[in-house]
Design goal:
The complex is a heterodimer of chains A (about 350) and B (about 140).
Chain A (H helix, E strand, L loop, with lengths): L15 E9 L3 E4 H9 L9 E4 L6 H16 L6 E7 L10 H9 L6 E5 L5 H14 L5 E9 L14 E10 L5 E13 L2 E2 L8 E2 L5 H19 L9 E4 L5 H10 L3 H4 L5 H4 L6 H12 L5 E5 L4 E11 L3 H4 L6 H6 L2 E2 L2 H7 L7
Parallel strand pairs in A: 2-14, 4-5, 4-6, 11-12
Antiparallel strand pairs in A: 1-7, 1-8, 2-3, 6-7, 8-13, 9-10, 12-13
Chain B lengths: L2 H13 L1 E4 L6 E2 L15 E4 L3 E10 L12 E8 L4 E5 L13 E11 L6 E9 L2 H9 L1
Antiparallel strand pairs in B: 1-2, 1-3, 4-5, 4-7, 5-6, 7-8
Classes of the chains: A alpha/beta (about 350), B alpha+beta (about 140).
Chain lengths: ~350, ~140
């Protein structure tokens, strides 16, 4: 059924949902106290406990491949049935050459598929999910794969260096009747807000310090969430879990409180304290941790945020098949528990911060 | 380095895709189109499970050109559960924690960069088994 004229809720003509989900977090962890030790003699307040750091042989392509393999293990479908492989990131390995074709080739999804890379700071992955909803919901495709993955960089000593992490998640979108979670609707709220950017050929991003809070993160996240609740005739009490984009621990906690969610509703999906801000992967990997723990019938609210700026909000409802697919791949908490602590010097080597020539 | 050579090898390198002999059912890696066991034609593609164990290994401290950034790293001969032996780098493991017989699983990683401006080359490496194991434990 088409949406009525003037409707701002996005819901495809054919009901769609998540057929599979999968996460990836690299094994290295840099404690925020290490960044503080090197740059402020330990004087700074720590926004998180520690962040995940990619190994020397890892990038958004390899991390997307593992998350996608976990997703396909849960979905249990033939990869040649996929008609779109979309990767959202702000750290694609090439400036020009798609990450998505590498992922599609490794999955065995080529050549009868669409493939593209997406970009919108930290919400590049959830946009790909919305596009996949349209692809599947229109009947153009039966299955589409949407990935949000990043190996984020912060300038040495900058506030972002404490939190800029590595990781992300992949979702296979397909018909609702096969889904482990049905997507009941989505809503996007976007304005031109210059809170964070990176110019071409620059290695590190710039940000508007405190401007990144109220006019950027909070305005977009809370408005997107409130409107979606309104359009779906639901209240915070209807949701077992809520996940908000997580640049640090405080922002999503405060957004949840402003909207009327209790701490118990946001804790299962709040991973930033242990893996850092995984940018395009941040809200999406929070959803994978929630799906690992959720029960059939649970409703989940997901709200991403991308600087520049905008939020994509989703209302999901878990189905009875969730329980049989949860154990088919490693849980997100398994990846978080797989942990090798490193010091700042090793971090500098792994992230290419040492001048070699 | 030749782009065409990497491109020809990417299917086997990204996903550990080999061949199975239609005559004697032996699994073949890398693919060679002729069965090393019965000498019959063998062009049927076969997706390996990626599971195996370390048959032997050594740690490289003086790497060849193109691998300097990763040293020291461990290279192993891995005996795949379907039979063939492959040589590959190990990853996600400390060099002093490797042992003969250690169960490993395939992951796709960046093998190297062809200089600062050249292409990125991806392919299989192996790491100590943990994901299949945990998945099986959860299923049990």
């Amino acid at each position: 059924m088409d949406q009525p004229e003037g409707s701002q809720l996005m819901r495809p003509a054919r009901e769609v949902g998540l057929i599979g989900y999968g996460a990836y977090v690299p094994r290295f962890r840099l404690p925020a106290s290490e960044v503080a030790r090197v740059w402020t003699e330990g004087a700074s307040a720590l926004p998180i406990q520690e962040k995940a750091v990619a190994g020397l042989d890892e990038d958004v392509a390899t991390m997307s491949i593992e998350a996608a393999r976990n997703t396909m293990a849960r979905a249990g479908i033939d990869p040649t049935e996929i008609r779109a492989v979309w990767v959202g990131s702000e750290s694609h390995p090439y400036a020009v050459k798609p990450t998505s074709t590498i992922v599609a080739e490794a999955l065995g999804a080529v050549p009868n598929t669409q493939a593209a890379d997406w970009q919108f700071a930290c919400k590049a992955g959830t946009e790909a999910v919305q596009a996949a909803m349209g692809f599947v919901g229109s009947g153009m495709a039966r299955y589409a794969l949407a990935i949000g993955m990043d190996t984020a960089q912060g300038r040495p000593g900058d506030a972002l260096e404490y939190t800029a992490g590595a990781g992300g998640a992949a979702f296979l979108i397909g018909p609702a009747e096969e889904a482990l979670a049905v997507i009941e609707g989505s809503y996007s709220f976007v304005t031109d807000t210059p809170d964070f950017w990176r110019r071409p050929h620059e290695k590190y991003p710039e940000h508007g310090q405190r401007f990144t809070g109220e006019p950027a993160y909070f305005k977009h996240v809370t408005t997107a969430a409130q409107r979606l609740l309104e359009f779906t005739h639901t209240t915070p009490a209807d949701y077992a879990h809520a996940i908000f984009h997580q640049p640090n621990v405080k922002f999503p906690q405060r957004a949840g409180k402003l909207l009327g969610f209790a701490n118990e509703q946001i804790e299962a999906g709040l991973l930033v304290g242990e893996i850092g801000n995984t940018y395009a992967g941040s809200a999406m990997i929070g959803l994978t941790a929630v799906l690992d723990a959720a029960k059939p019938g649970d409703r989940i609210l997901l709200v991403s945020f991308g600087s520049g700026a905008g939020s994509d909000a989703f209302a999901l409802r878990c189905t009875p098949v969730l329980a049989e697919r949860q154990g088919r791949a490693p849980k997100t908490r398994d990846y978080i528990a797989r942990r090798t602590e490193i010091d700042y010097a090793t971090y500098a080597r792994l992230r290419g911060k040492l001048v070699m020539e | 380095m030749e782009i065409s050579r990497h491109w020809r090898l990417q299917q086997q390198r990204y996903g550990l895709v080999g061949e199975v002999c239609p005559h004697c059912d032996i699994k073949i890696f890398p693919p060679r189109d002729v069965c090393p066991n019965c000498a019959g034609e063998a062009k049927t593609l076969f997706q390996f499970s990626g599971r195996g164990e370390v048959y032997s290994y050594t740690t490289i401290y003086e790497p060849p050109e193109g691998f300097e950034g990763n040293a020291p790293y461990t290279v192993a001969i891995v005996k795949l559960e379907e039979g063939p032996m492959v040589t590959a780098q190990l990853t996600d493991v400390d060099n002093n924690r490797v042992s003969i017989g250690m169960p490993v699983e395939m992951v796709t990683r960046k093998l190297r960069e062809d200089g600062k401006r050249g292409m990125l080359i991806y392919g299989y490496k192996f790491r100590p088994v943990w994901s299949h194991q945990s998945a099986n434990q959860l299923a049990a």
